[in-house]
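Let's practice the habit of predicting before peeking. Look at the sequence and jot down your guess about where helices and strands might fall. Then scroll down.
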Amino acid sequence: MSDNNDRPKALGPNTQLVRAGYNPFDYHGFINPPVTRASTVLFPNAKAMERHEQKYTYATRGTPTTDALCEAVNELEGTAGTIIVPSGLAAVTLAFLAYLSPGDHALVVDSVYGNVRHFCDTMLTRFGVQVEYYDPSIGASIDSLFKPNTRLVHLEAPGSNSFEMQDVPAITAVAHRHAAVVTMDNTWATPLYFRPLDFGVDVSIQAATKYPAGHSDILLGTVSANAEHWKRLKYANGALGICGAPDDAYQVLRGLRTMGVRLERHQSNALEIAQWLEARDDVARVLHPALPSFPGHEIWKRDFKGASGVFSFVLAVARTDEFQAKAQAFLNALLLFGIGYSWGGFPSLALHVDLNDRRILPPPEEGPVLRLHIGLEDVVDLKADLEKGFSVARASR
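Done guessing? Here is the structure:
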């Protein structure tokens, strides 16, 4: 974990990515900081141990490697401090455990990541926290859902799998009038395309597994807080003993250096394919915030600087009893698109989305929802692969 005492200079985003988090001359001029693998940290004498008179005391509280990543994320997010944890899900659950107590009420967006919903409905409920889900399009009308014991509002924009946008500044303004902390999962956009704290969010969360790591081989999450809420987050992290490994932190720090140029390619590839899909008769809808046809496009255009490579589309299928068979036929025909969870790495991925856990938002009725992560391949090859999927789906029964 790391506090951010020095504000970032006015550098461009890619310049910031290349330089953030460390000074090579702290490591004899080597460009990448070394990996410090540790559990025990030695003290020079008993008095130094008693008074904690050195920066590092035990590896759960940070190492030079994990601090380098935290400091880089602080610069990108504009936050007072960052915690790294073993996964994106752990990042969300740590934030909830830091700010919620038995008897509290939390408002969580209905388009939240499914595993976060599972945590809310099982662990938080068991701990005596009341969770209420709200429509992502609610905006300032969320005021009507607040109770005297509402302590936290959680946002995710765009929403998982269906990509609904949220009016972040409107929601945060209401939440702060009620003295509630606002957390946000910002994995889709990264701080390059949206900086939550600039729009009133208190705690920004990322699954660094995705675009910061970028190579489909690391699990890591980051939780970054403003000055008002950093101390409580840091305390909760220390009490729980959750920490990211230095080898993983090194790989994510390395991935950060190219995240900007990778995101540009993910964005351009995805938008071209989304527009191509939108023109097809066998596609009922494309769920991509950067498309003018998407219901939340104006909010995306107002607040976001770009789009990532993940979006969904609704396959046009006439009969509901054929939804699953058609979706599976489409996916099984793909060769370049892997069938797998997660996203953010260099290869393209696809999966059939289940939206039946939603409490407020009904799933699309026109057909099954297929989520695509558009990787770094050539678009012409990806289109040909998808064309094969459509052909097989049409022929299947």
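How did you do? The first strand starts at residue 2 and ends at 3.
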